[in-house]
Each structure stands twice: as structure tokens, then as C-alpha cells.
Amino acid sequence: MRTDVWQQLYTDLTLGVQADQDSFAVALGDRQILLPIRKLPDGRGVASLILNQAGFSVLDALADAVAAGLHDYAPEVVVAVPTLGLPLAEAVARRLGHNRLVPLGYSRKFWYDEALSLPLSSITTPGGGKRLYIDPRMLALLQGKRVVVVDDVLSSGASIATVLKLMDIAGVAPLAVGAAMLQGDSWRGRLSLPVIGAFSTPILHQGAAGWAVSPQQSA
Q1: Could you read off the pLDDT of 44-61 as tens digits, one per residue?
Q2: What residues contact residue 192 under an 8 Å CB cut-off, 6+ apart?
Q3: DSSP code per residue over 140-197
Q4: pTM (2 decimals)?
Q5: Where do the domains of the chain lie, and which CATH numbers do they carry?
Q6: Which of 67, 144, 194, 203 could form a disulfide with 95 if both were Cys (CB 3.0 to 4.6 A apart)?
Q7: 56: part of which helix (H) or strand (E)?
């Protein structure tokens, strides 16, 4: 198993499944990022990105791309989706000239309002068991403002759909969503607002010759 995934930017990789059948190269501008292939419980495969384990040069390049895509929406506030969306959202907010962001959270503080929370599930936590919260003290920073939401990966779309529902409960209508990776295309059916991704990856299937791009891309 390779240990150099998501640690640096390359200029000489061939895009797609690598010869080791354990990693996948994606384009980011004129450079490439190497990602590990993870096998899902149903046998399909996905290229994985864990941002808080990524090299700083990779995080910087992803933040540059997402911030550039969100710039035209003139956002006043960036909402960060926990947990792995936090490092990207902070870097994006800084590039947009902001001096802070508004983080959502999974941990309930005693002053939180349960009405400002929703149960959450995702492709990596299909059983759920978590709740997504917004600190009531953050509402004044969001309401009436131009808001964008930043997450690490969009895959099934379940997590980001919950985030947007929570924003609606809070009286906030985000202008766009930014993410480092857009995985498959299942998320498209859950979103009706613009999505900015630094790069996209396909769903994979494993055949006799190894991993290959699946004709069915929904995750």
C-alpha cells in the first residue's frame, strides 16, 4: 500500500488507475495528485481524499482552485462542513479575503438549540448516528449575507443535502457549494445550486484486468 498519496503535486503521472492497482491520478490544472483506491462494501471502488492527512502543497493547490471558482459569487461568509471540510474551508476563506468562517459541528454544546440540528449520514458513515449542528451564536454572521458552503468531498450528496437543509432552517440561502473532490455523479440529483470542484473522480469497478472506470457513476 502506497504511503505517498495526497502528499505532493506531480507533473509526470498518467491520469487514471496506476499500474500498482492501488492508486489513481487526477489532474489539477497542469499538475496531478495521487489518490489511494478504496474498495466500498458493495465491491465498487473510489479514489479517496483525506484532507487533514494531505501535504500542505496539495491543500494549497486545492484551496486555490476552489477559491478561484467561488470568487465570482462574491461571498461574504464561508460555511465549513466538518470534519474534513474544515481545513479546506479555512484556506478558501483566507484566499477570499475573509478574517473568519462559520463552522458547523457534530458536537453538541450545552447552549445549542436542538431545533438547529439534523441527523447526518454519508457514504463513509451510512449508518448515521451523528447530528449536524449550527451554533445559535453564529446566526447573526450568516443571515442576510452572501454565503457559500465548503466541504471536502461530494459523493452520495447525502451530507451536503443535510447541510443545505440546515441552512434553510437557519434562514440562510447559500449561493454555491465548493469542494475539493466531486466523486461520481450521484450528488448531482440532490443539489440545485452551483457546485465548484477542484477535480472530479469516477466510480470504479474491479474486473479480471483490475480496476476500471464504471459505466454507472452514481455512488
Answers
A1: 999 999 999 999 999 999
A2: none
A3: HHHTTS-EEEEEEEESSSHHHHHHHHHHHHTT---SEEEEEEEESSGGGGG--S-EEE
A4: 0.92
A5: 55-199 (3.40.50.2020)
A6: 67
A7: helix 56-71
